[in-house]
Specification:
Blueprint lengths: L2 E7 L6 H10 L6 E6 L12 H9 L5 E4 L9 H13 L3 E4 L5 E2 L6 H40 L12 H12 L4 H8 L3 H9 L1 H11 L2
Parallel strand pairs: 1-2, 1-3, 3-4
Antiparallel strand pairs: 4-5
Helix pairs in contact: 3-4, 4-8, 5-6, 7-8
Length: 211
């Protein structure tokens, strides 16, 4: 039985080192670290990613797969749910760093199975909605920045990465306190207050600097 970390690195902020550090801080250790670089999670199914395909070939019953969040496992709702269910059928346990979720196929109780599948569906739907919202915000951010200062305008570089922004946005949505969010994200309270005051503007700054 082995433990795998799978990371998708598609932007300058989503580094493999950052995702692995997050996982290790959450208490995970790994036998294998596998990452796809420069691959869009919105357009490319996991099975079609070079390292994602290799991961499918390597995983065996009893193995544990760790991912930052379920959005690493597919491009949309259907892709994510199909991937998780495929791994569970193989006897693989899936664990997420964000939210500390665990999904496996061990239970045979119909009620527990229904609750588990409903949670998978909810998280997969949330992942797709978030990806679509991020894409729209990126377009709006670029258009807004160009309108204000021309094609070369970027403004001040953000003091947070996209992964940190996702953590802050997720915890704000759960009404977590600023101190708790600061500890989870590694950001200052002042930065979190700025993101909280105008999440759309914070997203726009990231969009501009990702170009």
């Amino acid at each position: 039985m082995a433990t795998f970390l799978y990371a998708r690195v598609s932007t300058s902020e989503q580094t493999l080192v950052h995702q692995q550090t997050q996982a290790e801080k959450a208490g995970f250790t790994f036998d294998h670290v596998i990452a796809d670089h420069g691959v869009s999670g919105v357009t490319v199914p996991m099975k079609d990613r070079p390292e994602g395909k290799r991961l499918f070939d390597m995983l065996r019953a009893g193995d544990t797969l760790v991912v930052r969040w379920v959005d690493r496992l597919g491009r949309n709702y259907m892709d994510v749910t199909d991937t998780i269910k495929e791994f569970m059928r193989r006897g693989v346990v899936i664990k997420t760093i964000i939210n500390s979720m665990t999904f496996d196929g061990a239970t045979t109780d119909p009620i527990q199975m229904a609750v588990r599948d409903a949670m998978i569906a909810f998280m997969a739907g949330t992942a797709q909605a978030q990806a679509e919202a991020t894409k729209d915000a990126q377009k709006a951010g670029i258009a807004n920045a160009r309108e204000k200062g021309g094609d070369n305008y970027k403004g001040r570089k953000p003091s947070y990465t996209r992964d940190q922004y996702v953590i802050v946005a997720d915890l704000l949505g759960k009404n977590a306190g600023v101190s708790e969010i600061a500890q989870a994200s590694g950001l200052t309270r002042q930065t979190i207050y700025r993101i909280k005051a105008d999440p759309a503007a914070a997203e726009q700054v990231l969009a501009v600097w990702s170009q």
